[in-house]
Design brief:
By secondary structure, the protein is of the alpha+beta class. The protein has helices spanning about 55-70, 85-100, 105-110; strands at about 25, 30-35, 115-125, 130-135, 140-150, 155-160. A four-stranded antiparallel beta sheet has the order 3-4-5-6, with helices on one face. Strands 1-2 form a two-stranded antiparallel sheet. α1 packs parallel to α2 (about 85-100).
Length: about 160
């Protein structure tokens, strides 16, 4: 017994298979252009930092420790002036001033200090590095994220976020 692949309607010839519907390269209400991505197998443009990776990681550890000490009141923010942008430096100054107003100096000396537990470095380009820092304060954990960029041959923190 033969099974028909296409049913025919009485009075009309055999029914044709539907032709494929073309897909537009711009779809949806957001008008996202998928034209260049369709069929593209291009690898993402991730470059590894050229030069001394160990030097960058050592700097990231030192910088993270210094930021934790500034925020904890153990170090003045002026010590990070050279390695931060104006916006990041102003934020560190503000945090340091708030701590000085809320906690007397003699109580800060005896309290439990925060410790940097780990620092992870990711380099999206040869001129930029993103670091994530795990900070432990007693039983609590905190996170710090920073973006470092090469400015005139030295690393400079352009963004700093506390979590």
């Amino acid at each position: 017994m033969r099974v028909p692949t296409h049913r025919s309607v009485p009075g009309q010839g055999p029914r044709q298979a539907p032709s494929p519907v073309p897909v537009a390269s711009v779809q949806g209400t957001l008008a996202l252009d998928y034209g260049s991505a369709v069929g593209s197998t291009r690898a993402p443009d991730l470059r590894v930092l050229r030069g001394d990776r160990a030097g960058l990681e050592a700097f990231a550890h030192r910088f993270a420790n210094a930021v934790v000490e500034v925020v904890g009141g153990d170090r003045g923010p002026s010590q990070l002036l050279r390695w931060t942008t104006e916006r990041v430096y102003a934020d560190l100054q503000r945090r340091s001033a708030l701590l000085a107003r809320t906690t007397p100096g003699d109580r800060r000396v005896r309290r439990l200090r925060s410790q940097v537990r780990s620092v992870h470095v990711f380099c999206p380009s040869a001129e930029a590095a993103e670091i994530s820092v795990h900070v432990r304060h007693g039983e609590r954990s905190r996170a710090i994220a920073a973006r470092l960029e090469l400015v005139e041959g030295r690393w400079c923190c352009t963004a700093l976020e506390f979590g």
